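Pilot study result, target chain (332 residues):
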Amino acid sequence: MSTRITLALGGRIDRRRFLRFVAAGVSSAAYVRTLMAQEPKAAKEPTSEKKEPTRFQIACMTLVYSQFPFERALNGIRAAGYRYLAWGTYHRDADGKRTPVMPEDAPPTRAAELGRRCRDLGLEPLMMFSGIYPDAPNHLAVFKNRIAQAAAAGIPQVLAFGHTKRGDYSRWIEHFKILGRVARDNHVQIVIKPHGGLTATGKLAAKIVREVADEGVKVNYDSGNLMDDPKIDAAAVIADVQACAAEVRSFCIKDHRHFPKDEDCGPGFGEIDHYKLLHPVAFTGRPMPLCCENIFEPIVPRPSNPEGVDALARRAREFLDVVIRGLQSGQS
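Predicted structure:
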């Protein structure tokens, strides 16, 4: 029997059938054509529509400079090559006093002024913390003012999260249905991140978002938080982000190591594969803030001077830029 016939049919050949064809005077070539005609047609590969790359916006949180004055944070973030930033919560001023970046009861005009100061330095603010749990008795009032502050400052996202151990699910749904409408009316989006409790994973946060069912409320993904609590491994983090990717609108960038010390760290210093982390959202066509919440090296002490923070901030930005260019290069 011809080896070429066998290879042409991928090794699948019926010897008796072949001999019957030969006895009938059918050439081997005709036999091959007959069998190939009878082979089931291979399913056509699905052709996916060409999707637009996600417009990733690499930002640094002023939070990483919390031990230094806010102005020093702005200058350091700019010097590290960022175009975007996210407001942290507190900074130590020149006298060592811990001062809030934006008090929860501050008028929107104060937020507008701070937004202008950022833009005067060439930095676009993308996110601010709500700073309050949904279980707090004044949650709605404070959050509505946070939305007003964000709108006045031109900040597109307000970050929300709950208590790490407890939460009233029905209260979350009720409040975020109200707040989603307020956010949309002010051209702001609320993003809920994994933070233990009711939102221990991205999948749980997405469940809340889907029940709220308002475009004003979406998911922020924080991979470091998942590895910290509920202490899942990096592979489980990737499976989780894939499960909630359709609802994700931003990331708090934070890596994590379980060995040799269990702690958060800057991107690329931990166990999370950032190519796999960002791959599910690499082609959405929408803007996607990546806000660096932790830039620090694991195990060793954090820098005691702002110049050391500057260097790590630059490194985090450059690392994320490499990942994004690779994912969107067309070669991945």
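One observation from the pilot: The longest strand covers residues 55-61. A full batch analysis is planned for the follow-on phase.
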